[in-house]
Amino acid sequence: MLPRSLVLLQLLLLLSSASAWKKDEFRNCDQTPFCKRARSRPPHSLPSFSVADVSLSDGSLSALLLPPSSHPLHQVVDSASHSDSPDSPRPLLLRLSALHGGILRLEIDELETASGSRRRFRVPDVLLPDVDDRLRLRLPRLGSPAPGLSTFPISPGFEAALRHDPFELVVRRSPSGDPVLSFNSLGLFDFETLRPKRHGDGDGDGDGDGDGEWAERFRSHTDSRPRGPQSVSFDVSFHGADFVYGVPEHALSSSLALRPTRGPGVDSSEPYRLFNLDVFEYLADSPFGLYGSVPFMLAHGAGASSSGFFWLNAAEMQIDVLAPSSAGRVDTLWMCEAGVVDAFFFVGPGPKDVLAQYASVTGAPAMPQQFALAYHQCRWNYRDEEDVAAVDAGFDEHDIPYDVLWLDIEHTDGRRYFTWDRALFPHPEQMQQRLAAKGRHMVTIVDPHIKRDDSYYIHKEATENGYYVKDASGNDFEGWCWPGSSSYPDILNPEIREWWADKFSLQSYKGSTPSLYIWNDMNEPSVFNGPEVTMPRDAIHYGNVEHREVHNAYGYYFHMATSDGLLKRGDGKDRPFVLSRAFFAGSQRYGAVWTGDNTADWDHLRASVPMLLNLGLTGLTFSGADVGGFFGNPEPELLVRWYQLGAFYPFFRGHAHLDTKRREPWLFGEKNTALIREAVHLRYSLLPYFYTLFREASVSGVPVMRPLWLEFPDDKETFNNGEAFMVGPSLLVQGIYQEREKSVSVYLPGEQSWYSLRDGVAYGGSASHKLDVREDSIPSFQRAGTIIPRKDRFRRSSTQMVNDPYTLVIALNSSLAAEGELYVDDGKSYDFEQGAFIHRRFVFADKKLTSVNLAPANSGAKKFSSDCVVERIIVLGLPAGAKKAVIEPGNREAEIEIGPLNLRAGSSPVAPTIRKPNVRIADDWTLRIL
Amino acid sequence: MRKPHLRLSLLVSCVSLLWIAAFATPPPRESLGIAPQDENYFRSSVIKCKDGSKQFTRDQLNDEFCDCPDGTDEPGTSACPGGKFYCRNVGHAPLTIFSSRVNDGICDCCDGTDEYDGKANCQNTCWEAGKAAREKLKKKIATFKDGVAIRNQEVEKAKQAFAKDEAELAKLKNEEKILNGLVEKLKEQKERIEKAEEEERLKKEKEEKRLKEEAEKQAIEDKKATQDSQEGNVDATLEKSSEVQLQEGNDHRTEVEDGNNQENTKSDEGDEVDDQGNIESYIGDDEPIDGLSSTPTLEEHVVESEDDNMIKAASRDDSAAKAASKTSEEQDHAPLDTEGLSKEELGRLIASRWTGENVAPKTDEVRENAKEEGDEYRLDTEIPEPAEESYDGYNSETDEEANRYEEDDFEDERDEEYNEDHIDPADSYYSDEAGKSDHSDLTDSGGSSWLEKIQQKVQSVLQAFNFFKTPVDLSEASHVRKEYDDSSSKLSKLRSRISSLTEKLKHDFGKEKEFYSFYDQCFESKQNKYVYKVCPFKKASQNEGHSSTQLGRWDKFEESYRIMHFSNGDRCWNGPDRSLKVRLRCGLKNELTEVDEPSRCEYVAILSTPLLCYEERLKELQQKLDDMMRQPSTHDEL
């Protein structure tokens, strides 16, 4: 029997340990030796590097970067001899090249030294394969406007200026000389060169707090660090900037821009950490690292100009944003555990220019399957075939469209991926075919942890071929994950990626059909018993690469190999759909990502918008958050609000944890079912617009879901607005992030007015409007001056909408003009690359709507045709009185009447509507309003 | 009966084949998707939207452009999202589908009329499908017919049983009143006797006292001294024994047994038992530490006393993981001390956060031991992994312990069977039967003869006793005492029977009391390794071997007696309390089937029973069949 006090004491212990997020399980900067070292140095406290031997070689600038204490002559004359005396710092090799489109590339690496010395890791396969050939401008000569300064042009109006001593690199406007970006202006550049272990080098002090240069202990884990210290750190300044964005993935519920982590007036904060981690019940607002990392930062300022900086490095990175010491400049400190400097400066000057520049280096988002833009229904877990059939039928019964049903880990035989639990799923092919008969698809999960079971073919092959990541002592690394003891394919190796990709063929993946697509989860990788729930940093990959060097890209390679597998399966004709949780720069080329295991609360709903906006800014536009929240049970109101917001996410999927109550949209009473149906219907009606936006993203790198400032770069009000966002150039959406909210203030930017999507009411631009909050929708507006293509007939799935007619919604601006685009192709193949697509621009001016062909005349060998017509044209802002429209060619007439904006029951007529113009979207035509 | 039926259906089939052949081409645009009963609505040249929002001309009917937001003008096309399309499905049953199904390339109506744009090739399958459907319907009707008959009998039986029990209750209450009166009298008598005896004794004592006064004085002082020293010893023992318990508390079973022992020796160690009783009831009564929290507390206790850091760490984290059920927003907490865990243990531990499966191996061991030692130890059978079970196990154990103490306090008011019912669910199912048999001396002896006997007996005893006789006649006195003991024990049995009957009768047994017989029944269904047991008005459980997980206690009927809802079952880790909804449907016998767990810890099952074979429903089904049979000829007339 316990005395009462003891009972109470233990109760307290319990309550206090109730927090889900295990802060102590993850390292902070102070527990991370390289971060602690780098962060402890104030600006200008280091002796500076200097530049020597500047020369032009192969069209790029080459130079030596001399460490502070060394004497240039010695270094240059005989660098090899210095490797013999490891105590003296060695010079570094610096290379600068200008790339097409306004990009400066900076590479700093160790000099190639005598044999025996190891090369530092440079991340392969992330940059587009032809970046160097395609983009590099071959410099004819260098300028030297002043002694100790080398300059060369980057693009019209921009040049690079390299100051020799102290070393500083500035990207500046020419001829004004105004800086845009600069490197090492605070003198914090440091580069720990590889060296043999010396007598007296400590092994770390065991508590995780010490210097730990040659061994680190964190909690129960020891990192052997056989290669010693090798970190790189430097400062980058963004000039003319008020805010910086990007470097996902972090949970940001309170800000769109990255809040300063250091400096005057800033509460002590961790730096933004980029280290891919599987975080249980993550906080809605924290700079700690989550599932993916993109070391790309954008800056934007009141001068309406933007710039960007990308550091290609897959080791753990920590980034400090310094509180501005002077207006219009943001300083940042970048720290990384290993690797080299391979950095890209994007000059902008517009925000979309920066995005295009980044996309030209890491690739634009892949063009997705059309169905993948529709609604996805997921749950951990749909248990068996009956369950699948019942959920599928439930959607039909309630007339809620959906396109994809997902199966989580429990569908497998003991979490052996590529297998089925045959007791629960005895007929997987028929199950998929039944869905496919209704135009629906299925997604199954395939994770990177492979069950160590000799009778499992994947494990057998991987073991026999030596395809697993090795531990520090050279044996197959074993970790614990869903299946129990597991090993992880060394997906950095191209041969292993090839092998992995083959596993997705219909022959190899038993029970799969062509309508099955894939979900990669846990690919950070998640290792339940590893340090910080991931793989030990001293694990060894292909090419003797340490895991620490490649960690943040592991999930990227896995995503790549899976995507390639689906591409192969479809003989190169079927666009892959692969959702991944982990990501890195370039992941946009392989599929969609989501924000991982969020929670069913209002803060996480709110956090989803800044998180997705920052993902979009860094290329990952095909992204979404679990609608409803993964952990916990959302109140019906929260669930409805989440559907209303999620309907505008680029990737729209409902998902829930194993322990949660059932959440299919019809389980919350008729009223909520109707509200969710309406939200999903809205998404389906906007699918033509979304698809057109994905096309734009795949060409320009501009995301589908955009921060307001991307469309209104000179409106300061928008710079840190993380509550509202644009879908493309034409729609503005404001989430409702509070329970029982009565009214909400919505800022509408720009000079033009905005039409409410719900009822067509116009609101003025450049103003905040206090709006009553409605139960049936969240505030959303079409910008005056735009045309949005819709399909207002609802089907079971998007596949059945292919032949349905269009509705054009024209929102006229103050000069009674508007324009918009429509892109259509077959929705699944790569024929569009050979010209098989329809791309129209609709222009409305002088009471005349014209459909103009945007596809190049000789765009390729293939054609795409469509008999689809426009059944309805709604013209918001057209003065009343018009009765008829005349269509050319053919001199046909169409009636005009006042009609509703939406075909929902109870909606009232609000705008002139052209009935049945029935013009083909594939054709050129003009429609004149009389 | 059978022949004409067959002939009719043959005729029907021929007629319908003709009809199908005649209408193979799509019907005219104006009538597309319109139900026969609506045809008149669309006859006029200007038609109103059904919601009254506007009107449209007959040209605009099914013209592929949505004029009415409610879909009135486009019953036959997909143009209006809110529209409904009617297919006649001659040979089968007519069907109304969402207009989003029209010309979407998928055949929804068996007559194929929803796909008329030529893009999908839909065969008319109504006759075959209709035949199958009719066969099915006929079977259903047959079941209903028999079911209705059985139901009527059952309802009659239930009504009678209910009336009988009501009558019995009334009678028992009456008897209780009488018996109570007797007992009161006997008590009075007994007390008077005792008083007389006491007086006699005192008198005697006084005399003796006076005689021995001087001699006794010294002796009394000696006795007092001895008593004092004995009391001192008892105190010391008490302290020691509680220490021992703190140390030895590492095994929960020990606690339970201790409790039982102390129970048995209550009179010897009164003080100590009281003390512990308080603690227990504190745990049991205080809401915040009830259920979820009290369990880890005990677990914690287990570990604490084992004085083993490793286990402590594991257990603490384990409980932290459990507490991750979002009950607290707090961020700070004790660090997860994973030092000393093997890699596998750590992996399992982290995995358990997502799954709730327990992992800490030592806790496991403790539980295994506990399991071996105690037969009563309940296992959560839902998930084969250990931790949560041990958790659940502890939980239930604690609850029951708490109950037991609680019951003890009210022991006098409740009969043993009722108490038992709460303590051991596994044996409780037929408790009412047991109760009945136990009360056989009250009920089975028929009429009130036993009561009369007692009355007579008491009367005679009371009369026989002569108060004026001194000294008290000892045999007479013991007679009265015995009679009092017997009668009050009878009274308490009577009362417990009354309370169980009252308990039973207060339930809602349906409009016709038809579910009355369910009160004494349990229904079982074996699915894989589990046996599901549903006892209406009581509880439902999932059993595996000797272990049992409570899926819920009786809550209520829902959807007008179509669903039996059991709630507040054993708690799920990181999830809700278990619950079960049993959907009732018409069947010829009571049969529990299709137990399922569509979302974690929320169970559903189906119980077939004749009680759901309603006559009205039978009529509906017959009507439906008639409609299906008749339909083709209706169209023939058109």
From TrEMBL, chain A:
Residues 701-788 form the Glycosyl hydrolase family 31 C-terminal domain. PROSITE patterns: GLYCOSYL_HYDROL_F31_1. GO terms for cellular component: endoplasmic reticulum. It is found in: Endoplasmic reticulum. Residues 1-20 form the signal peptide. Residues 214-226 have a biased composition (Basic and acidic residues). Pfam families: Gal_mutarotas_2, Glyco_hydro_31_2nd, Glyco_hydro_31_3rd. GO terms for molecular function: alpha-glucosidase activity; carbohydrate binding. Residues 197-229 are annotated as: Disordered. Its main location: endoplasmic reticulum. Residues 94-320 form the Glycoside hydrolase family 31 N-terminal domain. Pathway: Glycan metabolism; N-glycan metabolism. Residues 365-693 form the Glycoside hydrolase family 31 TIM barrel domain. Keywords: Endoplasmic reticulum, Glycoprotein, Glycosidase, Hydrolase, Signal. Belongs to the glycosyl hydrolase 31 family. This is Probable glucan 1,3-alpha-glucosidase.
UniProtKB/TrEMBL annotation, chain B:
Residues 269-289, 382-391, 406-419 have a biased composition (Acidic residues). It comes from the Eukaryota. Keywords: Disulfide bond, Endoplasmic reticulum, Signal. Residues 190-447 are annotated as: Disordered. InterPro entries: Gtb1-like, Man6P_isomerase_rcpt-bd_dom_sf, MRH_dom, PRKCSH, PRKCSH_N. Residues 520-615 form the MRH domain. Residues 1-24 form the signal peptide. GO terms for cellular component: glucosidase II complex. GO terms for biological process: N-glycan processing. Residues 190-226, 327-347, 362-381, 433-442 have a biased composition (Basic and acidic residues). Gene3D superfamilies: Mannose-6-phosphate receptor binding domain. PANTHER family: GLUCOSIDASE 2 SUBUNIT BETA, N-LINKED OLIGOSACCHARIDE PROCESSING. This is Glucosidase 2 subunit beta. It comes from Ananas comosus. The gene is LOC109709491.
